[in-house]
Design a protein that fits this description.
It is built from 13 helices and 14 strands. Strand 6 and strand 7 (189-190) form a beta hairpin. The protein has helices at residues 31-47, 56-68, 80-90, 112-115, 134-138, 160-170, 222-232, 242-245, 261-292, 327-336, 354-357, 385-393, 405-422; strands spanning 73-77, 98-102, 119-123, 145-151, 174-177, 185-186, 189-190, 197-201, 215-219, 298-299, 307-308, 314-318, 341-342, 394-397. The chain is globular, with a radius of gyration of 23 Å. It has a domain at 31-271: Type I PLP-dependent aspartate aminotransferase-like (Major domain) (Aspartate Aminotransferase, domain 2). The chain is an alpha/beta fold. The termini are close together.
Length: 424
């Protein structure tokens, strides 16, 4: 069918671009971060002692993040993947049990499960969403289920209230993967406060960072906190006196996953910026949504009632039934006009990747799936039709808090130009 507009004016076909100028950098690191690091180095030079870990800066960062979350306990670790590992390790899951995990996540949001000799059982997304939901999780619960790991992808809240309610009926702990969802809320409550443990990534691209890599593990449960500390530091007997352990010996086999005072110094400054960072991202999304609300080919999905997304990126729906092109051509046209879009969340979901398909966790053994102690189906498949359909119909726009009114206007103009060219 012919389109209402002319495709000849599209930049992808040789027409003029809507935006020639580069998009502004985030400028996440500023003079205030530098001043804090300079002060740390001045102190190290004066004392003659290099910054370490579990020092004043790291302890303060953990305390301040706990206060930010409304109270509780925090352990700082060296990556978001490490945060997931520590959270699951702290739950003391029995090997060869099953952990339910959403299909749409980072590989590092799933790999800690088999590394702990547990079996990832992959839950489909809710329809038209990257996030899994209560119905999808409940379908997979069995006597083998030992934990549920829920990611809030792109800063959009999953129905964590519903998932926790289902989990509570079965006595199963929930870990929230909030790597992409700093400061996002559901019904006024911060994500990460619903489950037993919340895991955060503070790598350089997240809402707030602690340098190149980092992570935070949060809980309201003091006993879980003690286990988290042991799990992140080679099983040191944190919270146990020498009499309980027969001496001050390490009481759990684990890894050294500590953060450090240098990273924490950056994280403390960054944490102070976080509310404004998220507020500005929400304003950017609101401006774009208002500007393209009447378009046919593209739409911004509505958040569930009570959800306040923090938008690590902007999930955007391509309405193929209203367009004369496919999603790839549409995204290529947007990109040619200068808009920073990614056609897919990622090329493959974690359970569709080589490491999962070929069970490449512990050499060529196929463990933990191949263990005779695993009583489930080691060849179980997870088709995840909702997740695959969402991948087929959605793409992501890379927005951030340093976009101004001109960037919002240009994004809207690009969407409107491409919509006019390709709408039926």
């Amino acid at each position: 069918m012919p389109s209402n507009g002319s495709t000849s004016q599209l930049a992808v076909n040789g027409g003029p671009k809507v935006r020639e100028d580069p998009w502004p950098a985030r400028a996440l690191i500023g003079s205030e971060d530098k001043a804090a690091v300079d002060a740390l180095f001045d102190e190290a030079i004066e004392s003659g002692s290099a910054p370490g870990y579990n020092g004043a800066q790291e302890n303060a960062y953990c305390e301040e993040f706990a206060q930010f979350m409304g109270g509780g306990y925090v352990d700082a670790v060296n990556s978001g993947t490490a945060a997931i590992y520590v959270a699951l390790k702290a739950l003391e899951l029995e090997p060869f049990t099953e952990v339910i995990v959403g299909a749409v996540t980072d590989p590092g949001g799933m790999m800690p499960i088999p590394l702990l000799n547990c079996i990832p059982v992959v839950a489909d997304s809710e329809p038209d969403s990257y996030n899994t939901g209560p119905e999808q999780v409940e379908e997979l619960i069995s006597p083998l289920t030992s934990a549920i790991l829920v990611a809030h992808i792109g800063g959009e809240p999953a129905d964590i209230e519903g998932i926790v309610a289902v989990a509570d009926e079965h006595g199963i702990p929930v870990v929230e993967d909030c790597a992409q969802a700093h400061c996002a809320r559901l019904n006024g409550k911060l994500l990460g406060t619903f489950g037993a443990i919340g895991a955060f990534s503070t790598m350089f691209g997240k809402h707030h960072c602690s340098g190149g890599q980092g992570g935070l593990v949060y809980t309201k449960n003091e006993e879980l906190y003690k286990l988290m500390r042991r799990a992140s530091d080679r099983g040191k007997p944190f919270g146990l006196d020498g009499r309980e352990q027969g001496g001050a010996t390490n009481c759990m086999a684990s890894l050294n996953l500590n953060l450090n005072d240098l990273a924490a110094t950056i994280g403390r400054v960054q944490l102070g910026k976080l509310p404004e960072i998220v507020h500005r991202r929400q304003e950017v999304v609101a401006g774009i949504a208002e500007g393209i609300g009447d378009l046919a080919t593209v739409s911004i999905p509505q958040q569930p009632e009570g959800a306040e997304a923090s938008y690590w990126f902007l999930r955007t729906r391509f309405n193929a039934d209203k367009a004369t092109c496919d999603k790839l051509a549409f995204c290529q046209a947007l990109s040619a006009e200068g808009l920073p879009v990614a056609e897919n969340y990622r090329a493959a979901l974690p359970h569709q990747m080589d490491w999962f398909i070929n069970r490449r966790v512990f050499g060529t053994s196929g463990y933990p799936w191949a263990s005779p102690q695993y009583k489930g189906d080691p060849n179980r498949q997870f088709p995840c039709p909702n997740a695959n359909a969402t991948m087929d119909t959605h793409f992501n726009l890379g927005i951030h808090e340093n976009w101004g009114e001109q960037e919002i206007a240009d994004a809207v103009a690009i969407f409107r130009k491409v919509d006019a060219a390709y709408r039926k």
